[in-house]
Write a structure and sequence with these properties.
Distance between the termini: 127 Å
Number of domains: 4
Helix content: 40-55%
CATH topology of the largest domain: Rossmann fold
Shape: flat
Strand order of the largest sheet: 1-2-3-5-4
Oligomer: single chain
CATH class of the largest domain: Alpha Beta
Length: 448
């Protein structure tokens, strides 16, 4: 009896899948776009690219998944024991009845909101095409005047200039002083960049500073500076921080250098390569000039020797006689050519007179009159034939007409209904007949 009392109504009992769906709707509806922090454990990477792991703290753990598309966008590899901050949505995996976090963004703890803002700006500017390779300019082959935007008292500029001096860079370096850290630093760097861009004579711009935390380097992640770098008319090298540091100016610039020293190495390499190319060209020019002078001297000596052998005076006399002969032949050929052209012109004039429009019109008029006469004759013959044929048809029609036959003495017998009597037997079967003549009809009585 107690079982009957506790037994629920049928509509109050949920299936496991129904209860799981209710829980799924509640969780997914109330826990969207959440941040959670913990330590990575049980990390597992699938061949599909999906990454499964747990995020735990001292008293709990949370199953997590980072799908392949989102995992590929992270700038570091997840490892067991790593402290992370995850951003994503809670979801329930119904087959196992287990809730989990579907992560969209993973950052190492300590970077916080600046890292999220960096990723957002990076995606935004990349989507606008500011980082496209097609926008980037090639660095000059021989940079002779460089604008360096940096702190004039920092270690970065000292390292930069030291490398250039050590590698015998012979160009000019102009320092555009600007703060490279803290509030207002991005504005100063942007102003110096626009000033350098508007100045004349610069071949290259270098924006540089030493390494630091993301907070220290944040000025080079600000959107206005990144846009100014992308819009600059001069080629730009961005040399911010160390090898592991990446800022938005690195992507917007035409070339990234891993360190200030690397930027100096790159520039001096371009300069030294150009100088070496110039030296090689100078040596080649000198060699080719000496070779050409020697060859021309040898040719001149050979020419003088041949000139003595060929006796120029006699050659000139001989050429004079040949010229006279050619003049006579040319005159004869010219007169013959004129005669031939005159004959040809006369022939063409005769042909032209025969094809004169007046002659053409006379011939055409005569031909037209002939055709007109032929046409009239053909019409007369045709009309006569048609008249004769029409008369013949009229006679045939008259001969076939019933009245014409009756006029020739014939009579048509009909019964009272109008049926033609065509035999004596049929006539004997009737009591009365009608005899039809060409000018009327009479009634006849049949005697049997």
């Amino acid at each position: 009896m107690l079982d009957d009392f506790l037994k629920p109504a049928a509509d109050q009992v949920l299936k496991v899948s129904e209860l799981t769906r209710h829980i799924k709707r509640q969780l997914e509806g109330n826990f969207r776009q959440v941040w959670v922090q913990g330590e990575v454990s049980n990390l597992r990477r699938q061949s599909s690219g999906h990454v499964y792991f747990s995020l735990k703290d001292a008293s709990s753990q949370l199953p997590c998944v980072l799908f392949a598309r989102d995992a590929a966008q992270q700038n570091f590899q997840l490892e067991d024991g790593m402290e992370l901050q995850l951003f994503g949505d809670l979801s329930v995996y119904e087959p196992h009845g287990r809730y989990q976090l579907i992560a969209k963004v993973a950052i190492q703890s300590g970077e916080g909101k600046l890292q999220i803002e960096y990723e957002r700006l990076k995606r935004k500017l990349a989507a606008e095409g500011l980082f496209d390779k097609e926008r980037k300019q090639a660095l000059p082959k021989l940079p002779l005047k460089i604008a360096v935007i940096t702190s004039p008292s920092g270690a970065a500029v000292r390292d930069f200039l030291r490398i250039l001096r050590r590698r015998n860079y012979g160009g000019e370096v102009v320092i555009f002083p600007a703060r490279v850290q803290g509030q207002g630093a991005a504005t100063e760097v942007t102003a110096m960049l626009k000033h350098a861009d508007a100045s004349h004579g610069f071949d290259l711009v270098v924006i540089t500073r030493g390494g630091g935390s993301i907070e220290d380097l944040w000025a080079f992640n600000e959107e206005p500076l990144a846009r100014a770098v992308a819009a600059c008319n001069l080629p730009i090298i961005s040399a911010i921080g160390h090898e592991i540091d990446h800022v938005l100016t690195d992507y917007a610039a035409d070339q990234r250098a891993e360190t200030p020293s690397a930027a100096a190495e790159l520039i001096s390499s371009l300069y030294l390569e150009a100088v070496q190319t110039l030296a090689t060209a100078e040596q080649n020019l000198a060699y080719y000039a000496d070779t050409a002078i020697t060859e021309r001297g040898r040719n001149l000596h050979d020419f003088l020797t041949r000139l003595q052998l060929i006796a120029p005076d006699r050659q000139i006399e001989h050429l004079g006689m040949k010229l006279d002969d050619m003049e006579n032949r040319l005159g004869n050929q010219l007169r013959e050519h004129v005669r031939i052209n005159k004959d040809r012109l006369s022939e063409q004039a005769q042909q032209l007179s025969e094809h004169h429009p007046r002659v053409k019109l006379q011939l055409a008029s005569q031909s037209l009159r002939t055709l007109e006469h032929q046409l009239l004759q053909a019409v007369k013959v045709c009309v006569s034939a048609k008249k004769e044929h029409l008369s013949h048809l009229q006679k045939r029609h008259e001969n076939g007409d019933l009245n014409a036959t009756l006029k020739r003495g014939y009579t048509v017998l009909q019964d009272p209904k109008g049926t033609i009597i065509d035999s004596a037997q049929t006539a004997q079967e009737e009591s009365e007949l009608i005899a039809r003549f060409h000018d009327g009809q009479i009634n006849l009585e049949v005697r049997k």
